[in-house]
Structures
1.
Amino acid sequence: MVHVNSEIYVVIFQKKIQEVFSVVQKGVLRDVQQTLERKKLATARDNMGRCPLHIAVLTENNDVVEYIAKSFPATVKCKDHVSHLVIIIITR
């Protein structure tokens, strides 16, 4: 029974991660604030190794970038699969 519950938790968490990335890409700050509720979600990765802050930077959502960076400082040090730090992407 414990195994089934943990599988359900994983599926729910994966859906939540997908929702976070979708909301960040859309760039509506209020939606990001409501969806991105904890560090575990802020440091989650997509298939390219990017965290939500990477996505906010790449889509030039400055309000979202500032919110994520200030609320979840650990995201600033996140690297993608080719070792790009968010700060490197910002300075390009």
Note: The mean pLDDT is 87.
2.
Amino acid sequence: MTAVKPDLAALDAADPLGPLREAFYLPEGLRYFDGNSLGPQPRAAREAVLRVLEVGWGERLIAGWNDEGWFDLADRTAARLAPLLGARADAGGGGRFHLPKHF
């Protein structure tokens, strides 16, 4: 019995996730499979960080705390994490949450 070698280029071209590769910074021809890593840098992440540096901090200065939503970021983050951790978000602010006693 002879093995049939698939047309890998055709499979790549037909892959519906193929276009997502362009969303990341990757050297041409590289196949990146490291599971113990941040992974390839998303282009959107770089753009977001640069926008915060240049506009949120660079142009808005202290107004960025409110304009960018940094002032209440800890509270919003705690509210989103609390259900995942089986905790309740503390309405007192500061991004605190309370875990059940078994933690």
Note: The chain has a mean pLDDT of 83.
3.
Amino acid sequence: MRTSTTGGSAPRAPMNTRGVIVSEGEKIKAQITAIFAEQLNLEVPSPQTDLIDAGMLDSLKFVDLLLHIEKKFDMRVDLGDLDLDNFRSIDKIAKFVTGRVG
């Protein structure tokens, strides 16, 4: 991803390699998808897939996911934040993370 500038103007929104503007939320969603693929060895069919109902996110993977999220986004997930609804899908996880770091 790159930030585009024109002449001496301020940087514009981040862009992907095809020159399409990417929102911070989309960037976070891509990073979370990468955590699932690269760290948890899980290929999630879509960002809307219910990870708990699909049996993809058990208690051990959930703890591992939390550790990777905390490390990747330099944040702390407190016990009070552990509402399972925040972690049911990649979309919901991205919204949760965006609300804490954005």
Note: The first strand starts at residue 2 and ends at 3.
